[in-house]
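Hey, I'm writing a tutorial for new members on how sequence and structure tokens pair up, and I'd like a real worked example in the thread rather than a made-up one. If someone can provide the structure for the chain below, I'll link this post from the tutorial.
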Amino acid sequence: LSIIVEWANVTPSSAKRCQCLLWALRLQVTEYLAEVHAVAIQRPVEILIMYDERSTSPANLAAQLIPLYQLFPMILTVRPVAAGTCAYYLQKNIGVQHSRGTINIFVDSDVIPDVGWLEQILAPFASPRVQVVSGHTYVEPTGVLGKAFALCWFHPKREPGPAAPEPCSHLFANNLAMRRSATAGPPFQRLQGDVRGSCAVLAAELKHNGVEILRSPGAGASHTSPETLVELIVRALAHGRDLVILSRHLQQYGTSVGQVQNHRWRWLTSIIRIPTAVSRRFRLVDTSVSELPIILAICALYYGVVMLGALATALYPERMLRWIKMPGQPEYLG
């Protein structure tokens, strides 16, 4: 078993979340190894931390990993792996090249797994037919921005509790488990420039090859929302740009132009329905009625800028690829 953690999303403001992730891994790996202790020598665990040595000091990273180094040294390996200047998806691909496990689990440095996450994402692999299991990533509803994105962003809502795994058509690279045999080569394709959406391409490739994706609702992990207005606008422009560029990549897997256009229309109508959906579900994230107008305004602003980014990309694709840059290429599209 290999757990691959990208370190591309780490920023000074997210350092605390990274520590929470490491402690969550410590707890859950401990529980996992305790349960399989009798066969642990045959089922060792390794954690690979993929980092960019330009922005991360190996000595500082090693100090952060001390709580993990102290766990079961005979059967748990913690390895920082220098990934050069590679960004988000390429760090994951390099992690696969260095991993030794028959199952690779991908988790991001800015998500925090829920209690029982590791057990829930691994449980479906008891069947040898299961190749890919997607966890359930949701936005942590902290503050007004967090509540707005928990209600209207592309990540699903938090599940109330564990539920049976079910087939699904999508996945997120920030909370994903795959058998090494699921893909013939590196799982994540490099798209144009720093366009995100390799998750969607991977899901289309798996479907094209007849590989079923299971979603484990109990394998929950919380994700952050944009923290400032500037970050919101840049993410929204990148979101709109990526929707346009991504649709072209999906056509190679049998997605016709008509289906892509239909997908865009469904996406547009879903945006139009956001005010109604938010108004009906706002109490699910402990939102007061007084906060509702602000949340609706945030949602309208975000998706208005998304549409602006999509339109600008349709007219000036090369310029949008040059202008919109996101540090670390974090996961927005999946």
